[in-house]
Fold this sequence. Notes:
45% of the residues lie in helices and 8% in strands. The chain has helices at 5-16, 21-28, 32-41, 60-71, 76-83, 87-96, 107-119, 125-128, 130-141, 146-156, 167-175, 207-210, 270-282, 303-310, 326-335, 350-361, 373-393, and strands spanning 98-99, 104-105, 232-239, 247-253, 259-262, 291-294, 313-316. GO terms for molecular function: nucleic acid binding; transposase activity.
Amino acid sequence: MGIEVDAREAVIRLLLNEQRVIDIVDRTGVSESTVYRIRKRLGHMCRPADCEYDSRYLNLLERREIARLHEQGVSIRQIASRLGRSPSTISRELRRHWHESFDTYLPEFAHHQAWTNQRRAKPSKISLHQRLREYVQQKLNVRLSPEQISGRLLIDHPQEEQMRISAESIYQSIYVYPRGELTRELKATLRTKRTRRRTRGSRHTSADTRIPNLVSIHQRPDEVAGRAVPGHHEGDLIKGSTASNSAVGTIVERHTGFVSLLHLPDGWASDQVVSAAIEQFEALPAFFAKTLTWDRGTEMSHHQQLTKATGIGVYFADPYKPQQRPSNENTNGLLREYLPKGEDLSRYSRTDLHAIAEQLNDRPRKRLGFYTPREVFTKLLNQDLENQERVATTP
C-alpha cells in the first residue's frame, strides 16, 4: 500500500527544505525506506550542508592528491591504486570536473561542483518543455502507453531533439507528485490502473533472505519438467479483499491436474499455510506426494517444516516467472469463477472449498483425453494398490 497523499507531500516538502531523513521519519511517521524511495525519485537530493561526506565519495584531500599526481604525469591507474579507488572513478572525476577556462583540474573547484551537483533536485524534462508536456498529456488521454508515446515522438517530431522522452521518464512524471507536473488524474488513463510505479531494474527481491534455506526450481528433479511422472505439485495463494486479509491455498498436481484447496480460517501466515499443506499431503499416498513448487511468497517461509513432516521436497520458482508454475496459474484462473477478486474469502468454509475442488476435479480435460483429474488419479491409485499387493505376495 502507498502512503497517504498528505504524508507524501509532507515528506517532499521536508526534503526540499534539506531536512535529514531521520528527522523526516520522526516528523511524519513515514518509514525510512519510503523516505529514501521518494528522495530517489526526486533526483537523489543529498544531505544538508553540515553533513559529512560518505566514504563512497571522493573527499577534498583525495581530490587534492588527484590534482598533484595528475600534474606530475602519473597515470590514472596509478592514481587509483595509490588512493585505493577504481580507475573509472578517477577518470570520471577528471572528466566531469575539469575546469575549461584554466584547462586543468582544480580540486577545490571540483569539490564544490560535486557537492552542488549532488545537492540539487534535477527538474524533469517534462517540467521544462510545455509542448512536450502537452503532447504527452494528449496521448495519455487517448490511452496510449508511455512506451507508445515515446516511440511516436520520433515519427511526429523527427527533427526536434527537445521532443524526446523515454517511457520511464513519463512514468516518473506521472507517479512522482508534485515533481511530475502531469496531473494525478492521468494515472487513471494508464491501462494497468496502478497508483504507484513498480520498481524497474533488478527484479530480484530479498525473498532469498526472507525464506530461509530457499531451494531454487533449477535444483528440482528433471522428471518434474514433464508431466509423465505423478506426484509433483504446484502451489500458491488466492488472495481475498484487502480489508478481509483472507486467502485460500491452491495446490495442483501436474500429471493429473488434481486440485486441492487449503482452508485458512486463521490467516495466511507461514505457520497456517504450512500446517494446512501438511494436513493435505499426509492424506495423499506416497507416490502422489513427491515435490511442491511454490512462488517466492513468504507464506511458505517455513517450508522446512513441511519437508520434515511429509518428506515433500519444496522448490521455489524464480521471481516474476509465473510461467514456471503453469498448472497452478491456469487453475487459479479457473478458481476465480468461484472465488472472485475483492471478496472476503474467509466466509468460505472447508466444506465449501471441498465442493469447489470436486467440481474442478470432475471437469473433463482435453490433455487427459477428456478424462477427469479424479478418474486419472483413481486409476493411478488402483495401479499402486495392485503393485503393493503383488510385492506383498511375492515369495
